Records
---
Amino acid sequence: MDKTIEQLITELAALRRRNAELETAASQHLRETEKSRQAFLEIEKRYERLLSAESRLIQAEKMASLGVLSAGVAHEIKNPLAIILQGIELLEVSLRREDFGDVLAMMKDAVFRASKITKDMLTFSRESTPEVAEIDLANVIDETFSFVDHIFSLKQIRIARNFPHGLPKVKVDANQMKQVFINLLTNAAEAMPEGGTITLSAESTENIRNRKIIRIIITDTGHGISAEDRQRVFDPFYTTRKKSGGTGLGLSVVKGIIEKHRGDIKIENGACGGTRVIIELPCNTDESPREVTE
Amino acid sequence: MKKILIVDDEKNFCALLKLNLEKRGPFEVLTTTNPHDALQLAKENRPDLILLDILMPEMDGMSLAAALKGDKDTKDIVIAFLTALVNEEDVRDMKGRAGVDYFFSKLGTTEELMVSISGILS
């Protein structure tokens, strides 16, 4: 009997040892599996980055060709448009309005729309290198207000500005930045046909990569942005405002400029409705802007 | 009556702008599509204003403006570029280099052009 108990104890000890060995092996296996999973995720992430770099490279090549092409096309299209415009204007002073109603005005609008498309296309495709200087972004935004002020007061749009004192200066191309803010403020205004408030705020902070940045947030009280529009809103020629003459290039231009300044831009729905645009620009003045879009 | 000379290689544009300007203001408008004839026309007719296209196949507006500004008979005539070029910075640069005082977009309305011309000629 004692022998059987001893034998059982020995077997139990052996089983415990074996169990411990198996647990060690299992946890080793789990660690290796986890490592493999991490490695797989890393490979997947790098592959995505590679795809994205490839797609940006293709886009940059296309843009370079488009830049040359569009300068010529814009001029060649504008000349016949100018002839059509002159013809319409001659008819306007020669014909009785009651016979034609708004036909001539509609034709004229079409001419101006086509002209705007050629201009936007050229701006979009131009790969101009930013002429940078160290500037106070708040001043640039204030100057931008002077361009849009009259439109905003007509549309009953109020601007709330929340810029703390002593924001660090940033190394940017002031004119390109003005274009960014004009486009964004105009978009915000378009989203509020009944009027509303555009709030601009800025802060000096760090981004997720621990880089010192200036974050500018523009929030409107308009109708917000759908998930589909959010995905495609920076795509060239994608517009939600076709009827009101949008060419779908404004936000592409904005994104191009921000990226050339090594910044980031994203668009999301505001916490209390409306749309929120977040721009992050690096404060590191030693870092030159990108010469070409990557 | 004030005289205006339009120099543009687009024949139809010249014809229609001439009609538009003559309908709207007390102007005598001369046109030519050939920049080489423009200098002679300007000498003979002494217009008060020359509206000059920039991109023309035979001679560009910059060279013609330089020739007009370099000739004693035409150097005082006011020249304005009237162009379909879209990049305002480029045009501003050309305007400065050619000694031209004004530039107008071909895609502005005739009404806007009339206001500018009246301002220049008054």
Note: Helices of chain B lie at 11-24, 35-45, 61-70, 88-98, 110-121.
---
Amino acid sequence: MSTKTVSTNALRNAGSSGQSGDKIFSTASLLAGCLILAVLFSVAIFLLGQALPTFAADPADISGGNGFFSYIWPIVIGTVIAATIALILATPVGIGVALFISHYAPRRLAQGFGYLIDLLAAIPSVVYGAWGYAVLAPQLALAYNWLATNLGWIPIFEGPASNTGRTMLTAGIVLAVMVLPIITSLSREIFLQTPKLHEEASLALGATRWEMIKMSVLPFARPGIISAAMLGLGRALGETMAVALVLSGGALTASLIQTGNQTIAAEIALNFPEAFGLRLSELIAAGLVLFVITLAVNVIARWIISRHKEFSGAN
Amino acid sequence: MSNATMTRRPSQFTKNKLPKWSIWAVLAGALILGAAVSALLGFSPITMAIFAAVFFVVGGTGVSAAVEGGRKARDRLATYLVYGAFIVAVLPLISVIWTVLERGMPGLTYNFLFRSMNGLTGAIDNQTVIDGTPVLGGAYHAILGTLQITLWATIISVPVGLLAAIYLVEYSTGGPLSRAITFFVDVMTGIPSIVAGLFAAALFGLIFGPGTRTGFVAAAALSVLMIPVVVRATEEMLKIVPNELREASFALGVRKWRTITKVVIPTAISGIASGVTLAIARVIGETAPILVTAGFARGINLDVFSGWMSTLPTYIYYQIITPTSPTSTDPSTQRAWAAALILIILVMLLNLVARLIARMFAPKTSR
């Protein structure tokens, strides 16, 4: 901008070439930013466009023959069940691991343990699926038989238990393993940001380590923990391959240890390669439903984080 | 003299405190009890470990409550549970890695690495099982497919992600646009991978006719997943470049874009490179988007713009779900685990490279 006040021609010439470079670069970076927004919106628009035939179609033509709603409803419930199991199992363990790394482990080893948990996140989901299918499910089948005979009166443990162990509960456990590193790494960041003075003050008053954590660390980190769990929930809702491989799907049932139930993501992955015409559009509509659900969960989680950003610094 | 008094009247600080060895005594007791109870139900190491853990936690807390009082006991209980949580979290990791190593190593042969599945039928698999000869067929096409699709995804996402991060850090003034971008980049990291795949399939299906499945569609799907990761990593790194460097450059009369390309980015390049590597590691293992965008191929396909293509994750998936020979699945299972081993090695290598980059070209900040 200073070129306008300088009257030397040479300077102005040199400046104008740089100025166009400046303009090109800033425009390119602005465009890249806008492209990201455009991609997110076009995801929604293209899915909606391709899904429209499903909503317009005759209900009898939809899989199941009773319209889209009765097709999507059981698999939405299945998705929610799988994600809920994952979250119930992973949240306490994740918080425990985060506390272990931030407050319990020897200082020297803590970082190494952190890497170890991050490795969990690095393993591809299809490998988890194969592991759940080949290793975990046969082991759990024995436990399911025991549950069915001894606790069968509880609807979720109703027998006869699956002999292969490829059930909703197994899928939920595999999902729990997969969301654990997300919950752990986010909570760990927040636990580490607890003001040192709060911790030291409570220890100085004679609190035990647990009392210190309960009174100074956890209240400080509560919004962070909630949003970490929400992000884990978003991941669990959308996880595909682990469920597609582990779960031997079927109709909606209350029992978690029988064959049955299905999730949206696994339904799409299992049927998409052979789908065409209306079935294709049906699966894309299912994808749209999944997109909307995970988007809502993520937006709420991010909103909680951003609301508490000024003092938690977590993001 | 002090010795005598100390034995008679213990210090207030060590009163009601369990000695160090007590925890080991409780552990030994819990192990014995656990083995006994588990033997009653038909012995297995897993039930023994579970029972022993329960007895240890209950016993340790109980002893502490009796001797040290409630507050100390609760503190011990919390400690046991926190350590337990870590052990529980590490168990699946060990199990997964052990399984993949144990089952993948036998299949990792030269033949597997440099042959495709082209022309391999169930009959051939049956014959190898009957003859007991080494398993034929390999994952060469899938390895090539993985590398090509990931390369294209990187080519698309890195410039976009880098420029968007530069816009956020260097150009924006915190207006609504930059806040929207930051927010939606965060939201985009949570898009289910299968939805990204469906988006790419729907987009290219609309342009090139339904059922268009090529490696490039898959690369587009992966870049939807990769861009937000690159943006976040780059943004974080650009933010820690000290402002003094920028100001010094401006003071010398250097233009803003030259400052960014010659001063800011070189300073942050280690972090950016490691972030990009981590993003590659994240998308290289994605299965679901490939499944709906690139189809599945048995032979080598070197053209990302036409024809179906296999990647390692989809190769693993199909070898498990639809074994080549339905009657003898062992060769397919062996191939699947060997492919899983290669995939894990690739991902771990990328993670390691990312850490090395970050360490070797350590941030040249003044902090």
Note: Chain B has a mean pLDDT of 84.
---
Amino acid sequence: MNQAINVEQLNSALSSLRTVRSNVSLVFETLSNGLRADHGEDGKDKFLMELQELLYIVSNNLRDLEQTVNALPIPVPFNLGNTTYLSQETTQDRQALYTQLVNSYKWTDKIHEYSSFAQTLLSQNSLKRSYINSGSTKRRGKLQSNHNVAPLQVDNVINNIDRSYNDMKITISRPFASNAVVSINLSHVLKAVVAFKGLLMEWVMVKGYGETLDLWTESRHHVFRKVTESAHAAMLHFYSPTLPELAVRSFMTWLHSYVNLFSDPCKKCGCHLHHTSLLPPAWRDFRTLEPFHDECKQ
Amino acid sequence: MKRGKATIICEVKNGSYSQYPVPENKTGTYVIELLTKRILALGASQQGQFLVDCESYLSHPQMGTTKTVHILHNSEQPASVFSILESGTKNIHVIADGLFDLLMMKLSQHYTSKKQTKIESKGPRFELGDFCVKLGSVTMNQNFKGILVEVEYRPCVMANAVWGLLREFLQGLLGPTVPVQPTQHLMSRMNEIYTPIDTIYQYLEHFSAYRKVTGMRNN
Amino acid sequence: MSAANLAPITATDSLSQALKANIIPNQEYLLQGSVLDSAVEVLLHRLRGLCDNVDAGTETFDDQEVCFSLRDPNQQAAPLMLRVRKALDARDMPFQLRYIGQPDLGDKSRPTVVRSSLDIACSGMLIEFLNELGCRIEFEYSVKGYMFRKGRMKITVSKVFKISQSSMSPEPISQSYLVELSVLAPQGQDAIGEDMRAFADQLRPLVQLDKIDYKRLGHMS
């Protein structure tokens, strides 16, 4: 709407400019022609009169022009950077650059548009693992610091968990700068190693009692490879950037339930071994902590 | 000390195999073949053969109360010699390297081998997931004595925790009517960490039982 | 059937094969000597210059040895001697059970003492086992010192201590160090004796390594 008005104003301003130009040229034409035959005997006075008239028209036109130009909104000057000089480009093949410039501008514009759509969609469908649903900016600032917690605080959290179990020994080491790598000995059943980033769990590896523990090599036993899989699922399930301490504690409680990995049968089929995989129940329900075979858990 | 994995050894008695009529004179091979077929059907793969042998030495009568030294070898631990000294009610074991056999030769004045009771369990060895199953036919002095099935569950080191699971596996393999009982030695070590010597003790207990049964079973 | 599924050979078979091939190191070639405490540093310095295993500093050991005897039931032969060594500085290492036969000095031309020997690594209840087997403890001592290696030769420079009953520091048996040069080899490799003699000659100004006849020592005391 605004733009349409502007164009009309601009048009009238341009037409009044044209009128000024044509009338001015008329003045000069009359002047250059000088006295003509039709001016008659006292042509001198007549000529001066005609000239005065013409000048009067020009000054009127000029006033009109000034009026329309003043009515135009004064454009804020764009900072076009080097593109400003494109208008002064004389070489033929470089003049095409302007179209490309306009195209890329259109693309950027679209991206901007789509991302704003995406933003609206994301805020409507909250995803668990994103920060978006976590509310005010003030809180968000605090959240991000969970990646970067003082080692002492991490130690406190983990040591507290360690103290609450008699049959689960948790030890902290820091082989990679300030991030904790926690090794867990669960009775004589299994060993696990958890890599932390701040207070957030990043990686879990579960192995047998007699095996050597490291972050990357898988256990040689099928059952512990299965438990590692479950532990990864649990790590993602319990992931909660707003309450990292709760996440760690829930994960440890869940892991502790593996103390009966070999001795308790599956809650659903009642057997120790699943008939096809020949594995013991290597899955623990997240809430009830009951043992299930991977195949029986649905 | 080297850690092991929970293992049970179960004797297959022909009596409990009533639903599978065993032809005359083919006892051992027939049952082994039958069990081999079953375990292959479960998806196992054969990984070589195994051998556990036992030779017993008796002390010289001049040395006072008779003592027995059992020398056992297990192909799972090929560089070791397991030696168990039976003295009254006590059993004392030593795990040594291969040269211990030479020492026993040096002791031949003091301890003499009862060659006719040399006994061994030998047969195919299968791997099935985390299980290792060994089907051994027991022979003493070339005479067939019976069949011992050894099931090892490698991830677990405590017999107590894994007992139910092992029994379920064995009964699945041998049939639900087969009684699966821990040996006396295993009973006393249920809550300890299992080591290779525990397997040896289990074999010794079964071997001693076979030796007591004189003569060969004819079924 | 694939090769992997062949029946394993019995331990007895593999042992008799090893015996036939004569690959079991059951002979010990031995030279012994001693140096005074005051002279030991010079000897150690010389050995550090001559031996192989000195890159990471001198290897030390601290062992306790118990010597058992098993009497012959027919009272005819000499008692059988068995020695048990336990490393006090590496407690998780297995025991070393050692059978040593009668030393054979031979004539003057033989460069070293040769005695039959079996070194067996053992774990488990070894002391109890030997007691129940019928062995009697003869004596025990602790030995602490340095171990060097030069090719197949082993050189130990060690001090023998009495086992102290209380928690007091053990008392040394003498004011000198025992120096032993030994090689374990299968039967019939007598050439090694010459190598040992040559090496002993290199140490000659500092320590005299010789064939020691214990029977004669026994007579002297």
Note: Chain A has a mean pLDDT of 84.
---
Amino acid sequence: MSDKVVAELQEPTPAVGDGGPDMIQLLTPEGQRVSHPDYDKYVADLTPEDLRSFYRDLVLIRRLDAEGYALQRQGELGLWPSLLGQEAAQVGSGRALRPHDFVFPTYREHGVGFVRGMDPQSSLQLFRGVSQGGWDPQENNFHLYTIVIGAQALHATGYAMGVRMDGNVGTGDPDRDTAVICYFGDGASSQGDVNEAFVYAASFDAPVVFFCQNNQWAISEPVEKQTRIPLFQRARGFGFPGVRVDGNDILATYAVTQHCLDEARNGNGPLLIEAYTYRMGAHTTADDPTKYRVSAEVEEWKFRDPILRLKTLLAHEGMADEAFFVRIDEEADQFAAELREGCVTMETMAGETMWDHVYAEDHPVMEAERAAYLAYKASFEEAN
Amino acid sequence: MAGQLEKVTLGKSITNGLRKAMEADPKVVLIGEDIGKLGGVFRITEGLQKDFGEDRVIDSPLAESGIVGTAVGMALRGYRPVCEIQFDGFVYPAFDQIVSQVAKMHARALGAVKIPMVIRIPFGGGIGSPEHHSESPEAYFAHTAGLRVVACSNPEDAHWMIQQAVACDDPVIFFEPKRRYHDRAEYDTTATTAPRGLFEANVLREGTDVTLLGYGPVVKTMLESAAAAEAEGTSIEVIDLRSLSPLPIDTIVESVRKTGRLVVVQEASSFLGMASEISAQVTEQCFYELEAPVIRVAGANIPYPPSRMEEEFLPDLDRILDGVDRALAY
């Protein structure tokens, strides 16, 4: 083996908390804009208005998350998977998408769904227990939440294979060329389906961007349990590019995702983005992170907060004044009130609808069981 | 109408059916291992890649979950994928995608998306193969709501059923009796309408004493058994189940009400298999008409045996007639 190969093989895994020298960053935790030769161009056209709207999205989805958590504690939701700390990774990547691009989320991508134009109530249905999904994926080109870890990576790849078969790759027509983005986490990187998706996507030049939010924890297991090497380097073994971006830096995430989506649309897919971030909260409301991680680590990540650093930039650069920040907070309050109201008034469907969509075509068992259920229910009415 | 009678093997009938389905709908794509140039290990897709191209007959990497999982994505994009699983025992790596994703997607989306997918699985034993090449995993899939499960037993059915499965808007698990791939039968290959619906059973032979019910590879053995029984004066009604889910229970019940006796044959192990469910439903619906308990003639409750012992495992003519005798003994 050449010295270079040996050196690469011996490359140490960066410690948690340090994204390492390969991590793309355009906005430091202190809110300082830093330059990057490859990625500056993707944010060059962003106006102060754009940045203010980024800030608004970040604040609103953090509020969505806080309300989800509270609603669970109040017994209105059965469970809530928090996105706290991952707002920039979700908004930055989500805002880089075009309307006709297609998104395959996990169950934690409330922020991506929000910037895709989803009704924020939609994210709550599954966790309130009124539906197992319940929205039309084609409405916002945002697929249903996938709960089985990593299963959606194959769906995204197959969808992207279909995009390529449709000829919607590399035509140069921005209204036609289409990319697919697939979200998953550091834990999912160990799943067979994710690795099979990498193989298939590479084999068929699928226009898919794999977007791994490495939030350092898969419930109680640290990322070191999943990988010896930085996750973005996995891509090289599958024969496609991988890049690590500061997932708490909305500008860098937006820029890197734009670049990778463009590459995919141009026919240079697949690509892997590792958004280096941190799960500030529990895995879900059923989890207790105090049992497996030290608070010092969480405290350290608070200094890298994605919202604070954009706020600092906006304030320092004179792109937003205090009145703007107050206005956004007021909007968040209003948003939260509507969300709570929408959640508690969400209707549970009638029992007989359980059989409605199991099959697309008529099915004798569905009809028979529904009829038997209704007859059983009616028997109580008659008895009264 | 002057039809064209042709003698075609079961395997070739599926090939022809797939070809017709691909001609009828440009969104039909095939995906599986070795299905392109080679035409699949059983040559079922032979010549199709040459005629329809590599985008419509896709040689997949060697990963079954990938075959089914990417097919889900293609279906979401508007395609109608037909997956080939090389052998029954190789479907398990795709099991999660099939039961958690394929089966549930339509319900999860409250009907907003459809998964019109076919998963073809050559199944059953009797070909002298090593482990994992001779299994009958149909009950796993028939147990799962959201899937439809069918098995063909003869060339004409194979020709039609594959086309009907592709046209179905629900996911269909399509079992092919691999040891019958080379069986030939004469039928009208130019007919334009199917003789019956995909989810209907077919009464192959009418009889009065016992109903003999099965699907896939054992159907031929059942017909041979019925012919042998006739020579001994027993009149057997033979039903090819064809659809395992939904179960065409009405046809079964009608027959059992006539004969009063039911023998169900399957290669799969008896415990919690198709025959068990059929036995339960027939007992519920024909309690007063039954002259004997429903008899199951099935594989033993063991892993599929080494091929030199498989004749001891598979239901053959003698074991089927033994089952008939047991039913008649009441």
Note: Chain B touches chain A through 46 residues (CB under 8 Å).
